[in-house]
Amino acid sequence: MDGETPWRMFAELRRAAPVHWNPEPDGGRGFWSLTRHADIVAADRDAATFTSEEFVNLEEVDERQAGIRRSMLEMDGPRHLALRRLLSREFTPRAVAGYATFLRGLTARTLDAALTGDTFDFVAEIAADFPINVLARMLDVPDGDTRKLIDWGNRIIANTDPDYADVLLHSAESERYRDLPFRSPASLEVFEYGRELAARRRGGTGADLISRLVNQPPADGVPLSERDFDNYFLLLVVAGNETTRHAITHAMRALIDHPEQAERLREDPGLMPGAVEEFLRWASPVYHFRRTATRDTVMGGARIREGDKVVLWFASGNRDENVFDDPDRFDVTRTPNDHIAFGKGGPHYCLGAALARLEMRIMFEELLPRLADIRLAGEPRRVRSNFVNGIKEMPVTITRA
């Protein structure tokens, strides 16, 4: 699928069938697609009607599987809030601002290494390298382990991409791994690694994320089980790496395609905070999350039945012409910019939103002044996925400033 096809498809759905029923081609269980900004926001905020408890991707899981694989993403209500609060203070805007000096230094080191050559893969040398090192610091893991974290994230989240997946999601072999997140055997490696770290941190006084998970009881008084810890740690590894790197890559691609926008940011660095919001809207690094209707309801004139799967297409909402003027125009001065790349005010609003914004702002504040010119040196290669809007390879040629 080419890069423009999803946006044309979403535009047609928003116009003709904003709440659209998608039957499964094999006669199995279909799902509703929500494509308008207002409907997506309404469903995202209404966990009582549209629950995450039945899983947030389109894979069918039975009750036993759900119990084994359930992470904070697949919870609602008091338990979800208690697990979220375990680390929420570490991700507030005030808390992540304390990483600014570290991020400046990390960005400089990343760029010093990448920009030694004239042609290189932007994803491998910059976009993937940068956020994983931030995560490594927050987890307090050795710098030498960052490549393992990147590899695990690729293999787990891109479970429909033969370049990454150990076992493709819909293959017969994946049944052997049906109890693992994303049916990926790489999850076992992440679990083992996380358990080793937890064993060393338990009972200590560390302030890293793992120490807080193992030494700080949840507010509801229910301790984390080993399974709870496994799934929480895996979520940090995947979410802390994948989405920010894809957002950075898409932002760079957009600036390459719109050099006049890059020049505006060079001339006026004060535009960068607003530009980051446009980067996020444009990238929409997570295409969708799924919910399940807990009762019969009506949305956009469609009658949704209890038990129906309902998919919130955040990527479509970010191009909704009812919310964004000329939504297919990339504009670093766009205001207002009511994008929903992180969700919108619901209980599952992205925990790492403030950190992602800071990472992206500092990256482009440091990168753009170093470049007189940057162009594609080959066609970018996309991650084969309907879940993450990812680019796995983007060769570029630069002229240093």
TrEMBL record:
GO terms for biological process: cholesterol catabolic process. InterPro entries: Cyt_P450 (IPR001128), Cyt_P450_B (IPR002397), Cyt_P450_sf (IPR036396). CDD domains: CYP142-like. Keywords: Heme, Iron, Metal-binding, Monooxygenase, Oxidoreductase. Pfam families: p450. GO terms for molecular function: cholest-4-en-3-one 26-monooxygenase activity; heme binding; iron ion binding; steroid hydroxylase activity. It comes from the Bacteria. Belongs to the cytochrome P450 family. This is Cytochrome P450. The lineage of its organism: Bacteria, Bacillati, Actinomycetota, Actinomycetes, Streptosporangiales.
